[in-house]
Write a sequence for this structure.
């Protein structure tokens, strides 16, 4: 494969790089180093390859935005700006719109689909069994796709990355900051329409119950009933837990405007929610997660990897973070080992 790349590069130096064409073709370049990424870019240009990628983002919020950007950056770094195009569309939180977007990608016979968010992944998996699909910002693929006994590999034309932080460690963090003898009742606030949110709540509830907390469920169906559900939560919960929930992440201002005046702290499943309404989180870098998804896309597009055998990848690092503004407002002292979220 290295010889093939070298020949292509030599031809490019002799005749000049050809303009990129309009359809994707196989490349044999590798992606493990900056030098190899340069070779991929040059080889793609020499072959006249343009990879056409459809990006369906479930809704706008900081974490998903970062994942999309990381994904795009990885592909541009590998192939060059002239040899990869993105049709980036946002469903604005509507699952039906996700399906419409995906159907458009399928009709256009794109080379690969990136599904950012659970509804986007579900729509993509339902929309095509042929075009490679990579998900990102997905908590648990088995839950999202209804796979019993999920073993870490989806199979077929689907793979991707997961944003799941260790749920037992999230429960440990809540206990560290808000011990059960002082904060006896934990309210679980999440969107019932998001199966991955329900999965996280179920797991964290089990961990907290074992630690002696009383756990109460406060689920909302969409943003329309969010405010009333939050009002109910602050009436009885001593502390609130919000998982990595896309609807909650898009409505942190509503949540914060109710919980902060009521003096009820929030532990969040990711940095974006914590920044908007929480006090602390065990978080990942969504940019890095999206970038890793982009690197997987490079392997799929070049034929280096078979998507049907690619296991789901997880964020390698997790960071304890806190919201300085909300902590100060609530009079909460954060112990050593936490990183402040920059405003």
């Amino acid at each position: 494969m290295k010889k093939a790349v070298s020949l292509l590069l030599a031809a490019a130096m002799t005749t000049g790089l050809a303009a990129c064409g309009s359809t994707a073709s196989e490349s044999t370049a590798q992606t493990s180093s900056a030098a190899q990424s340069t070779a991929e870019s040059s080889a793609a240009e020499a072959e006249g390859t343009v990879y056409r990628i459809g990006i369906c983002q479930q809704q706008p919020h900081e974490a998903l935005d970062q994942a999309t950007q990381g994904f795009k950056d990885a592909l541009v770094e590998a192939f060059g700006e002239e040899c990869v195009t993105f049709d980036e569309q946002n469903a604005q939180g509507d699952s039906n719109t996700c399906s419409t977007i995906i159907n458009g990608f399928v009709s256009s016979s794109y080379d690969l689909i990136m599904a950012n968010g659970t509804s986007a992944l579900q729509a993509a998996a339902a929309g095509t069994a042929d075009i490679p699909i990579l998900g990102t910002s997905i908590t648990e693929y088995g839950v999202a796709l209804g796979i019993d006994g999920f073993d870490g590999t989806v199979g077929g034309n689907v793979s991707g990355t997961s944003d799941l932080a260790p749920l037992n460690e999230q429960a440990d963090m809540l206990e560290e900051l808000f011990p059960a003898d002082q904060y006896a009742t934990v309210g679980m606030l999440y969107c019932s329409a998001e199966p991955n949110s329900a999965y996280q709540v179920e797991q964290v509830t089990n961990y907290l119950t074992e630690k002696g907390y009383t756990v109460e469920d406060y689920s909302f169906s969409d943003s329309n009933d969010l405010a009333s559900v939050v009002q109910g939560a602050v009436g009885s919960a001593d502390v609130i837990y919000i998982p990595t929930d896309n609807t909650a992440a898009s409505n942190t201002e509503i949540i914060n405007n109710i919980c902060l005046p009521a003096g009820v702290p929030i532990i969040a499943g990711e940095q974006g929610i914590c920044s908007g309404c929480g006090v602390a989180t065990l978080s990942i870098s969504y940019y890095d997660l999206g970038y890793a998804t982009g690197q997987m896309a490079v392997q799929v597009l070049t034929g280096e990897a078979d998507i049907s055998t690619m296991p789901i990848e997880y964020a390698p690092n997790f960071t304890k973070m806190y919201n300085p503004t909300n902590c100060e407002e609530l009079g909460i002292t954060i112990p050593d080992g936490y990183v402040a979220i920059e405003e």
Notes: The first strand starts at residue 51 and ends at 57.
